[in-house]
Design a protein that fits this description.
The complex is a heterodimer of chains A (276) and B (299). Chain A is mostly helical. Chain A has 14 helices and no strands. The chains are: A mainly alpha (276), B mainly alpha (299).
Chain lengths: 276, 299
């Protein structure tokens, strides 16, 4: 294609830059606001920069006066458990759906699609009943269990497994390899990038998950970070913005750091399937 | 027994049992936390179940369509349907148009810094909603950062989250900010699938840029558009996090979506109305989803 007029290009860069600035503005607010004292926010609410970037009192208060250390530990436990179960079970299910012909595979795939589409709001109340019946209310297990194998991971793995040449698996079969050996020794080494994508998407989902933990975690000992932050933002000190913004940074930072290094997998996970 | 099965069938049987073993974890979780809850929600919609019955869920009375009738005549529920419709009608096109514009700008307009811009627009997608809502609440306070920017250009900003007329746009802004990146990435994937030589040919034939956009890009982008439309519609119809965190549905219920209404009923112990309400919602989602598929496929 021939090049567009330089003025057009300049205007386009200008618009995109403006758009990017608007998209990133909230990150600037949180970064600057977290280092402001409450007095600063009250007296000069419109000021951009904090008077002193060395003021980490908000962060100290989160961990010393509030239980953000505990929330963070809970979030880490929930997210790591979810990532491990999802990567393992989604890879198994994706492989079975794509490469093992078995009666009922269409029905199972229909279940995957259904689970992706059903509005969550129609499910959480009965899910809560089931958790009550299992005696798991207020445990981290209750937070993990419903998302132990998310349909999105199975869907991604099935797509990737589809592109693995069947001849490779058949050749191993003819050589007398057992089904487990084929899965672990031939299939797994080929789908590393897909497993990374599933791991990233699962981490993102479980780290950010809000409604379900809000319902099953009923005291501070089982709050995850988002629940803890939401409760703090609606509690008695709900206008202590310095503290809340510091809390927001604690919640945001792990995902932002991962994004910085693994951007490709984030975008792939969402572009490849279209669902968060 | 295996002696009577021919040697060809043995590995095949092993394959089937392996397959069942491999899908067992997914199916267990699916049955326990999607299939059974979906059925339970429907059954309980026809009962008078309340908060006291949670521990004895079999001990409830059937009331046929009474709960549905109560929900469908409840002014709060009807208003929440209207509010949700507003979220969808304003939020979905806004998000999609901005996402498409960004995707076209990045794909066809510029050659440098593409990855940087894409990362900037994508960043809000991975942002935790609670953290984003805290930032929004701080930014949109009466004399907060947003209004101080407006003041510096000479306008007085409104009371964003406290004014019933302004709360809705403020909540929608947060939802759009978070969803634009998803639309952009999906449209980008769609644009990259369009072969460049199609455009070359049209250009040689003298088609204008606008004509190329309406007659070629848009039709060729149809699969991506279909996907994005369905995704965004479902996402805005189920909108919960943004209004819950920013306004709790207020002021004057101006931002109370159906999902938020259902959550509130659950919180007040009105289990049966919550389930009936969620099933009305489910029905609307399904009908709209099927309609969208039909409409966009047919055209």
């Amino acid at each position: 294609m021939d090049k567009p007029h330089p003025v057009v290009t300049a205007v386009l860069y200008g618009l995109l830059t403006l758009g990017a600035l608007i998209a990133l503005l909230p990150f600037a607010w949180v970064l600057f606001g977290a280092f402001k004292t409450q007095a600063e926010i009250m007296s000069a609410p419109g000021a951009w920069l904090p008077q002193n970037f060395g003021n980490v009192s908000n962060f100290i208060a989160l961990f010393a006066e509030r239980m953000f250390g505990r929330y963070m530990l809970n979030s880490l436990i929930v997210s790591s458990a979810t990532v491990v179960t999802n990567v393992l079970f989604a890879t198994m299910a994706g492989y079975a759906l794509a490469k093992l012909e078995f009666p009922g595979h269409k029905l199972v795939f229909a279940c995957v699609l259904t689970a992706m589409m059903v509005p969550y709001i129609a499910l959480f109340v009965p899910q809560f009943f089931i958790i009550v019946q299992m005696g798991l209310v207020n445990t981290l297990t209750a937070i993990v269990l419903p998302m132990a194998v998310m349909p999105i991971g199975v869907f991604i793995m099935r797509q990737f497994a589809d592109s693995v040449p069947t001849e490779l698996l058949e050749a191993a079969r003819i050589d007398g390899a057992g089904e487990f050996a084929i899965f672990f020794k031939i299939f797994l080494p080929l789908v590393g990038p897909a497993m990374a994508t599933v791991a990233i998407i699962t981490f993102l989902n479980s780290w950010n998950y809000f409604l379900w933990p809000l319902i099953v975690a009923q005291n501070q000992d089982t709050y995850t970070l988002p629940v803890g932050l939401a409760v703090a933002s609606q509690g008695a000190k709900s206008t202590d913005y310095g503290l809340l913004l510091a809390g927001a940074i604690v919640v945001l930072l792990p995902v932002l750091i991962l994004f910085l290094f693994l951007q490709k997998y984030f975008v792939q996970g969402i572009a490849g399937t279209g669902i968060k | 027994m295996s002696r009577f099965v021919s040697w060809m069938q043995a590995p095949c049987r092993q394959r089937v049992s392996t397959a069942w073993l491999f899908i067992a974890p997914f199916m267990t979780i699916f049955v326990l936390f999607t299939a059974i809850p979906a059925v339970l929600a429907l059954i309980y919609s026809f009962t008078d179940i309340g908060v006291a019955d949670i521990r004895h869920p079999l001990d409830v009375d059937f009331v046929s369509f009474q709960t549905f009738a109560r929900v469908l005549t409840n002014p709060g529920f009807l208003k929440s349907i209207w509010t949700t419709a507003l979220f969808v009608v304003i939020g979905v096109p806004l998000t999609m148009i901005i996402g498409l514009a960004l995707a076209i700008g990045l794909n066809n307009g510029i050659t440098k810094l593409r990855a940087t811009y894409r990362a900037a627009f994508f960043l809000p997608v991975i942002t935790n909603i609670v953290a984003a809502a805290v930032i929004w609440q701080y930014a949109f306070t009466l004399s907060g950062p947003v209004n101080s920017i407006l003041a510096s250009i000479g306008t007085a900003g409104p009371n964003w989250l406290g004014d019933p007329r302004m709360a809705m746009p403020t909540v929608i802004m947060l939802a759009v900010w978070r969803n634009v990146g998803t639309c952009m990435v999906l449209f980008l994937a769609g644009l990259q699938a369009i072969p460049v030589d199609v455009y070359e040919a049209a250009k040689i034939d003298g088609a204008s840029a606008w004509r190329r956009f309406t007659a070629m890009t848009l039709p060729l982008l149809k699969p991506a558009t279909l996907l994005v439309t369905v995704l965004m519609t479902v996402s805005f119809m189920n909108i919960f996090d943004e209004p819950y965190l920013l306004t709790k549905g207020g002021p004057l219920s101006s931002t109370k979506s159906v999902a938020l209404w259902v959550y509130e009923q659950f919180g007040q112990g009105n289990i049966a109305p919550a389930m009936a309400g969620s099933y009305v919602m489910l029905a609307i989602v399904v009908v709209l989803g099927v309609l969208q598929l039909r409409l966009l496929r047919a055209r």
